[in-house]
Amino acid sequence: MDTRLLLTAGKQYTALQAGLWVSGVRRHMIHKSIRGYATPNTLGGIPKTSRKQITVANDDGRVNWKELSVGEKAARTTQQTFNFGIILTGLVMTGGCAYFLYKEVFSTDSKTVQFNRAVDRIRSDSRVKEALGSKHKIRAFGEPTWNRWARARPIASNTYKDTNSTEHFVMHFNAEGSSRRGVVSLHTFKGPGASDWQYKYLALDVKGQPRIYLENIDATPGKQHSSFNFLGMQWRK
């Protein structure tokens, strides 16, 4: 009987020790968890706000440079370098487009300016109106293309320099009135150091009719013609 009591008491004592050990382990784990939570993520008992790691894709510049890690600083530098490259490329392309637009549309040397001035001249000439028909506004256009619906038709032109370094510009295009169609031919030139173009000739050819000269510097050799400058061109009176 005493032996049984002793065995029962021993078992109870062992169970009590095991329970105390488990309780101690639990308290240790809870304390460690609380300490681990408080140490890295709090400062003075106030939780710090966590943030995502900064990458090239998600960096919006809000995080201060001093708070970034080495890898995050490299990501921000890469992103800013890429953005600067895009801006620089855009500026170069914009400058190129502006230069091309000036040379092709606004410069006195451009084919467009030469064409528009010649069209203004033929539209205002009474002989041209009579030859082509003046019921409608005279229409000027370039060479025919395979696409009859194309609005922008190429205009045949050529620019060259002679042995005296004089620049020459030659062009021809079509002109159409209410009754007939003709071909306008022009030749302008500009000497070395000159800023203005002068007409060598500007003429209209209509089938079955004599050529109509609006400008012809060779018509009266040796005769000096009075002229004036307007929009970069020399116009003879």
Protein architecture, described:
- The protein is of the alpha+beta class.
- It is 41% helix and 24% strand.
- The chain has four helices and ten strands, in the order αββαααββββββββ.
- It has helices at residues 2-41, 70-106, 111-124, 126-132, and strands at residues 42-43, 46-47, 139-141, 156-161, 167-176, 181-190, 197-206, 212-216, 227-230, 233-236.
- The strands form two sheets. Strands 3, 4, 5, 6, 7, 8, 9 and 10 form an eight-stranded mixed β-sheet that branches. Strands 1-2 form a two-stranded antiparallel sheet.
- A hairpin with a 6-residue loop joins β6 and β7 (197-206).
- The protein is elongated.
- Mean pLDDT is 77; it is low at 37-43, 223-228 and 230-235.
Mean pLDDT: 77
Please trace the helix and strand order, writing H or E for each element. HEEHHHEEEEEEEE
Q: Mind summarizing the main beta sheet? A: 8 strands, mixed
Strands, total number: 10
Q: What's the Cα radius of gyration?
A: 45 Å
Return the structural class. Answer: alpha+beta
Percent strand: 15-25%
Distance between the termini: 148 Å
Helical amount: 40-55%
Stretches with pLDDT under 50, minimum 5 residues: 37-43, 223-228, 230-235
Assign an overall shape: elongated
Please give the count of helices: 4
